């Protein structure tokens, strides 16, 4: 059988069948079309301004590695004049994060970008290994997710950077759209598809330049560019826990490859139709977007939603009882109804956490609330 | 009593024999059917309140879609029972139902009188004598003026074949995928049912037998089809926008709206299946229902998005009933966009004029490099279905 020529340049042999539309392309054309599409996303959404300092949230995984590589290439090719910095979060998971951070360190030299690492231990006094030791493997992704979102912001602030880009891809966005529909979360639905999250009120804005890039194409790009990335799943989030939304998306993609992009489009359009288009968002949340392979976290959210209404409030209602070794807090209304009302009715307004000063829709931000419970347990153990 | 046969009594009437499960409590057959009927009657009462035009007693005349599947069969059964009840009551308005089946088998000529669909229709009309039944061939959809036919790849009558069913068949063959065919077919059946209901001044509402499960699957199916903008119209009860096109020029002639209601919207698919098992005569009307196969034009070699979604929701209905209802409730809360702009020639929903410029997901040169201007009459999702 003669080799199929590339449909774009008609010269080279096609080696890639694009997962997105089954076009057969040669290596060079695939790489250039992938980069052009990201460039299109960046220019059409006016993501950056010349001279902007941008932190790339880097985990060492395929998405963020590809993001760093593409941004470096485009920054040079199209003269964005961006000052790019790698920003990593060290969750403190032995056997996983320490290895992936090595990858990030190599990337930093390969791409000639400065690297900043912020650790959970220095920010919160807890590593994820310690958290799991205390609360067990179940539900630990909630802690990790909440902590990471804040850690990225805090790291950016330390660097005096106001824009963090993350490697969320089209599959992630589509998954979030479906998850928010399944959970019945209209407020999150309206912002989950925004390319930029965090509004004028927040200090650090976050965006996802790979929002329209298919996960499979990211893997192909990394492969053909021979990028150095770390591909192990987090040890605390085993494969078996993958959310049903993810598997639904995968089966839709098999039936019709454009489905992922179509779901993203539908999500954007539905965002336009939400009755209360309030964009204010609680900082500890970017539209219910998970960041790592946080299947377990989504699965947990999914299970919660089956006994509806309760979702979301469950964690926050964790009685913040006074304990001796923490700052005293004003006692929050124990009345469940009040909090419940805030999730179903009007969107909460943005304020500051009374403890750490980080923006929050509640009197105390989610990270501090979670820390309270953890610290209480630690105190118990000490006794 | 031996432990093995002991079951809890019915949670509602305390009858000893309670073989059914209603949400989480054991229920006897009587209470179960009563529950189904109450849910159904409540929606009918709501419908009556919405569409009545005077406070006097006036006959309620509705068209009901009948696919011969479990839900629409149950709908017909419930409508028949309700008609009986209403006819006995002097104080209530009379009830007239026309149940319409659209025969989607394009391989047989529309003139034939001995098709399987017609045999089934006569089964139904022999059983439910209070209701009227009609079987309409899908090729009749070509006469429908609520579709902008010029936006679809339909061969003209002069292109070597004049027979309507052949033309339709050729159009379906031109569609890019199984999902597209299933999607366009669903929309055309809906158009045809709407047209029948609208043509006859007699009737004032179209009833469809979607259950909560089916509506949830429909919502997510539309999301996956890229038709997120159309969802609030597709899944809510109420007036559906209809645009009449000039068949020759494809120009918009008139715009109106027609009520579509889903009286089974508060029942799960599993509950309807149980309901049917209580009345074996419903299942007996259509023996092929047992294996869940209904006639369609498309081959089942590949699956469509519609099937993937239906299967997904049937699988999550029992473990996570909450999320099925969640989807319908959430999408139902979305606003319906202002209906003044141009509308899509296929699905009929208002076009989101700024949508394509807001959309940055494609560079536009991936496919259809010289997209013909007439195709811009379709919404994003319909374009995907028609062009791929």
Automatic annotation (TrEMBL), chain A:
Q: Where in the cell is it found?
A: Cytoplasm
Q: Which UniProt keywords apply?
A: ATP-binding, Cytoplasm, Nucleotide-binding, RNA-binding, Transferase, tRNA processing, tRNA-binding
Where is this protein primarily located? cytoplasm
Pfam families, per the entry? ATP_bind_3 (PF01171), zn-ribbon_14 (PF16503)
Cross-referenced SUPFAM superfamilies, in alphabetical order?
A: Adenine nucleotide alpha hydrolases-like
Q: Which residues form the Cytoplasmic tRNA 2-thiolation protein 1 C-terminal domain?
A: 351-382
Q: Where does ATP bind?
A: 57-59, 63, 89, 167, 172
Instruction: Provide the top EC class.
Output: transferase
Give the protein family.
Belongs to the TtcA family. CTU1/NCS6/ATPBD3 subfamily.
**What is this protein identified as?**
Cytoplasmic tRNA 2-thiolation protein 1
Look up and give the organism this protein is from.
Answer: Clonostachys byssicola
Source organism lineage? Eukaryota, Fungi, Dikarya, Ascomycota, Pezizomycotina
TrEMBL record, chain B:
Q: Which UniProt keywords apply?
A: Cytoplasm, tRNA processing
Q: Does the keyword Glycoprotein apply?
A: no
Provide the GO MF annotations for this entry. nucleotidyltransferase activity; sulfurtransferase activity; tRNA binding
Q: Where in the cell is it found?
A: Cytoplasm
Q: In which pathway does it act?
A: tRNA modification; 5-methoxycarbonylmethyl-2-thiouridine-tRNA biosynthesis
One cellular component term from this protein's GO annotations in UniProt: cytosol
Where's it mainly located?
Answer: cytoplasm
Q: Does the record carry Iron as a key word?
A: no
GO terms for biological process, alphabetical? protein urmylation; tRNA wobble position uridine thiolation
InterPro entries registered for this protein in UniProt: CTU2 (IPR019407), Rossmann-like_a/b/a_fold (IPR014729)
Q: Name one Pfam family in it.
A: CTU2
The entry's function note states: Plays a central role in 2-thiolation of mcm(5)S(2)U at tRNA wobble positions of tRNA(Lys), tRNA(Glu) and tRNA(Gln). May act by forming a heterodimer with NCS6 that ligates sulfur from thiocarboxylated URM1 onto the uridine of tRNAs at wobble position. Prior mcm(5) tRNA modification by the elongator complex is required for 2-thiolation. May also be involved in protein urmylation.
Cited HAMAP family: CTU2 (MF_03054)
Q: Which family does it belong to?
A: Belongs to the CTU2/NCS2 family.
Protein name from the UniProt record: Cytoplasmic tRNA 2-thiolation protein 2
Source species of the chain: Clonostachys byssicola
